[in-house]
Amino acid sequence: MKGRTVHPIWIALAALLAALLLSMLVGSVSLSLVDMARVVAARLSGGEIGADLRVADTILFSLRLPRTALVALTGSALAVSGAAYQGLFRNPLADPYLIGVASGAGLGAVIVLSLRWGYDVAGLLAVPLASFSGAVLTVLMVVSLARVGRSLPVTNLLLAGVAVNSFAGALTSFLLLRSTGELRRAIAWLMGGSSMGGWQPVLAVLPYWLIGLGILMTMGHALNVMQFGDEQAQQLGLPVETTRWIIIGVSSLATAAAVSFTGIIGFVGLIVPHLLRLLVGGDYRRLLPLSLLGGAAFLLLADVLARIVMTPQELPVGIITALTGTPFFLWILRRSRSLPYWS
Amino acid sequence: MLEVLHLTVRYGAKPVLKDVSFRLADGEILAVIGPNGAGKSTLVRALSGILPPECGSIRYDGRDLCALSVQERARLIAVVPQARSLPAGFTAWQVVSLGRTPYLNWLGQLSPADEELIWEAMRRTDTQHLAHRLVGELSGGELQRLLLARAMVQATPVMLLDEPTTHLDLQYQIGLLNQMVEVVRQPIAGNGNGKAHQPAALVVLHDLNLVARYADRVLLLVDGCVQAYGTSVEVLRPQLLSEAFGIPLEVMRSPNGKYPLVVPLMA
């Protein structure tokens, strides 16, 4: 068994490394690996950075590195919370976007942003917190709307998700249009473009990401047991209700972290866990860490595409993930009955 | 010993179990029989803590089960559910390994001793060769044996089996019940509390002739009430059964004279 566990993790790590490199090097101004190596070497040796490297240095460390970090955090948070929602609802179509949680988180973020579009640390920390409240409220609303007795039918979940999704979306658009801030930036946010630069958003998201994903990484066994249904899970000794609330809480925390500064980015939470399930099977103890690595790699690649498709203009990354995600989603929908890894 | 006293359970306003009392001694096999809707599955769900009793008590060796945590209870009672809608993406080995859940930490890390136990249970239920196959590829009989193995590694002093033979061919029914008897006669080691108990089994069965063959005692439930409780010779009597099932039944002796045989009378 051991050889099989090590293998996919290394592949995912390699993919992530490649995506990180691409994200650092490719953009409206592309750098070569040699340039990057020289800048890093100059920084490490602590010496003066030569005039010829100043531009490369600024691009790498002031622009690309924080953006790469934010995108990687966002992608991993979306993919892991997607995998967790799918396991929690035992539904292959659950994803923070489809069940409306992401829009709820977005609405929370926009409410705070419209109050104070501020750049100080307190203002920035309030954004993920508001997203988190929005995410938890939405998931509670969707689940209670979709619930029939003790069961949670797929159709109901999706319908309630879509309804709440469009409601929250409309409120968000309304607030954004009313805001006195830059409209273009707001719209880019809605479409999932990382509109804010610098290290502050990264630092503001990091604590939520660490707590949310840190706890989710330990939930693999519990999620495995929950795949057998609430009744069997309890008979196997898992406190089902408590576990469910923990997973909802931390998944919403992770979603909030992802959404608060990069905007609405759909389908990452759907594509990545499903591809991984096809590759490695349904064991959540593997699926969760692999989703973390794969989600980061996938969103980084999408972000690279978003930067180069229309250079010098940038596309919001949400457009890329939706363009690749929608066909994939429809394919899953058609196949979901016959998928070998899902009953 | 599992002791159930005056157990009453409701679904909403409707009582589905009324004043049910019985005892299940260590090493005993108790068959629960009765027509559909009599409350047999409800009894399994109440004993395993899914449905809270409205009144009455469920005790094991004097400990009130309702006061225990989910995890502690899962160390005393294991359930073999009917094999349906199992998650298709797990391997057979993973399914059995989840039986160790009540003894594991939050991460679910298995010790070498746990793994040894899992292999032993799979050997004894003849599922060893399936270990790396996916659940989605297995037959009903194979799945039912896996669930028995999962309950075995839970290493509890009480095992509840909810219609384990439904949907199985005759040879698999006999095979499964033989394996159940073997678990009771020769328990698996691995209960965290170190006390070696001879486990007891409560099994819900439809086939009355299998009941006669396998059960030490029989509980006849009708409409949520205990209609009869005793040895198979005491309970499998034509008048009791005909009344309970609403059709004329006759009870004969098996050719070797050892077991009662229940046969419906043709009009």
TrEMBL record, chain A:
Keywords: Cell membrane, Membrane, Transmembrane, Transmembrane helix, Transport
InterPro entries: ABC_BtuC-like, ABC_transptr_permease_BtuC
GO BP terms: siderophore-iron import into cell
GO CC terms of this entry: plasma membrane
Bilayer disposition of the protein: Multi-pass membrane protein
Membrane-crossing residue ranges in chain numbering: 65-85, 97-119, 125-145, 157-177, 206-225, 245-275, 287-309, 315-333
GO MF entries: transmembrane transporter activity
Matching Pfam families: FecCD
SUPFAM superfamilies with a match to the protein in the record: ABC transporter involved in vitamin B12 uptake, BtuC
Top-level division of the source organism's lineage: Bacteria
Subcellular localization, as worded in the UniProt entry: Cell membrane
Cross-referenced PANTHER family: ABC TRANSPORTER PERMEASE PROTEIN MJ0876-RELATED, FERRIC ENTEROBACTIN TRANSPORT SYSTEM PERMEASE PROTEIN
Family according to the record: Belongs to the binding-protein-dependent transport system permease family. FecCD subfamily.
This protein's name: Iron ABC transporter permease
Species of origin: Bellilinea caldifistulae
Automatic annotation (TrEMBL), chain B:
Domain of life assignment: Bacteria
ABC transporter domain ranges (all copies): 2-248
Coiled coil: none
Classification via SMART domains: AAA
Keywords: ATP-binding, Nucleotide-binding, Translocase, Transport
One MF term in the entry's GO annotations: ATP hydrolysis activity
InterPro entries: AAA+_ATPase, ABC_transporter-like_ATP-bd, ABC_transporter-like_CS, P-loop_NTPase
Protein name as catalogued: ABC transporter ATP-binding protein
